[in-house]
Amino acid sequence: MRIPRIPFLPLRRRPATLLLASIIISLALPLPAPIQLPWEQPAPAPVVSHTPVQVGTSYSPRHATYLGLDWKDSYKRLEAMHFKVIRLSAYWDEVDSQGYDELDWLLNESRASGQPVVLSVGMKGLGWPEYYIPSAFTPKVPDGGDLGQDEFLRAGVLDFVAATVGRYQDNPMLVAWQVENEPLNPAGPHRWYIGKELLAQEVSTVKANDERPVIVSAFGHFNMLFDRTSNRSGFDFKALLGFESDTAEAQSLNVLDKGDILGLDVYTEIGYNFLGQVGVSHAGSDWAAKAGHWRGNAVKQGKQAWITEAQAEPWEASITTYGDPKSTVAEDIGTRFKAIRAQGFSTILLWGAEYWLWRAANSDSSWLDAVQSLLRANAAAPSLLAAP
After folding, report:
1. Which of 68-72, 166-170, 281-285 is least confident?
2. Hey, how many other C-beta atoms are within 10 angstroms of the C-beta on 341?
3. Taking a C-beta distance cutoff of 8 angstroms, is the pair 339, 47 a contact?
4. Whether the Cβ atoms of residue 269 and residue 335 lie closer than 8 Å to each other
5. CB contact at 8 A, 55 and 243
6. Is a pLDDT exceeding 70 seen at residue 17?
7. Which residues have CB under 8 Å from 347's CB, separation 6+?
8. What is the pLDDT of the chain when averaged over all its residues?
């Protein structure tokens, strides 16, 4: 059954058209078909592991509402699936205009049900348009700039982070705080980023108020051409030559302390529509191995590494195919999960919870079924909550 169209959907992140425009204009290359570069080496053979994984997800009431779902009922359905963790976001613009009521409900509901959560705080939250900044703090920063250079915005977001941590620090279901979402990666309509100086101040603000681990996330390796759009310096030539480089992953690790968590967001299929040409670009064969590389670096430093977003939802070229996706299908969820697990990750958050529920509401349970199969297979994984 074809899922009916919806009138509007905020895309996962920057539109694929913008991604390709950035690549093509800056490099003066012809439009890439599914991208696979010759210097990308095949990933090593998967390592079979029977250790159960802590399976989590992310949830946005905004996205659920856009899809016509009841956001409270949707959250309760996710709780009933027994994820090891659900990641939520404190949307600054919403709190500024409406207060903490929605977030209070989510955190109180989690406490009542025993659902472990991660709370993302800052100006950059889950989902497009990436930045959720109150109008009073509209950045005075040029496109592509560092938002940390706006002193008024800097002071405002630090106050917001401190207030939010102070409000929820006594909730025993909180596993960790995420500071911003992919802060060092340029994103959103203006391709702003949050510089390492402000990011470090935000991390320090959290730690001054609570002792739980901090997560800083980065958009993971896709392929060399698409990585151009998420790297402020363009092509990562040092990595291309086999050297360690100052990527968003490396900078994220630098602002974290021992016991903190590097989050990696991994996607393998991205639809595009550029100049009338529609297609799907695929991640390089080394995408999982690259994630494993950063996990190894984190472990060497006494830190943790999670997959904070693993693609489990289509990333389409257009909303018109959202219900009949061309980029990925439900069966791909398990394949990606297996590849990530083979790299030693013990905590994997699947991205797309609202989509699974929307499909199920429209008589297609295949996406939910695929996720529930992983949850059953990994039900024995330990809790993420600290022992009392």
Report:
1. 281-285
2. 23
3. no
4. no
5. no
6. no
7. 53, 54, 56, 84, 85, 304, 306, 307, 384
8. 87
CA distance 187 to 319: 20
Q: Give the pLDDT score at 49.
A: 60
Residue 174 bridge partners (DSSP): 117
How confident is the model over 256-300, as pLDDT tens digits? 999 999 999 999 999 988 787 889 999 999 999 999 999 999 999
Query: Exposed, middle or buried, 73 (CB in 10 Å: 0-12/13-18/19+)?
Result: exposed
Query: Domain ranges in the chain?
Result: 16-42+49-377
Give CA separation, 71 vs 86, 179, 315, in Å: 14, 24, 22
What does the alpha-carbon distance between residue 340 and residue 311 come to, in Å, rounded to a whole number? 11
| pLDDT at position 227 | 63
Torsion, CA 152, CA 156, CA 159, CA 165, rounded to 10: -140
* pLDDT band per the 50, 70, 90 thresholds, residue 228: low
Alpha carbons 377 and 75: distance in angstroms, whole number: 22
Cα(194)–Cα(358) distance, integer angstroms:
33
175 close to 83: Cβ distance less than 8 angstroms? no
Number of residues assigned to the chain = 388
Summarize pLDDT for 115-142 with one digit per residue, the tens. 999 999 999 999 999 999 999 999 999 9
Q: How many CB atoms lie within 10 A of CB 147?
A: 24
CATH class for the region spanning 16-42+49-377: alpha beta
Q: 74 near 357, Cβ under 8 Å?
A: yes
Sole residue written with tokens 């890439």:
32
Query: What's the token pair of residue 109?
Result: 């509901």
Instruction: Quickly list H helices, the chain.
Output: 16-27, 61-66, 71-80, 92-98, 101-113, 151-168, 196-209, 224-230, 237-240, 248-254, 287-300, 332-341, 353-361, 366-377
Tell me how far CA of residue 301 lies from CA of 103, 157, 251, 264, in angstroms: 34, 29, 13, 16
d(CA 250, CA 262): 9
**0.70 exceeded by pTM:** yes
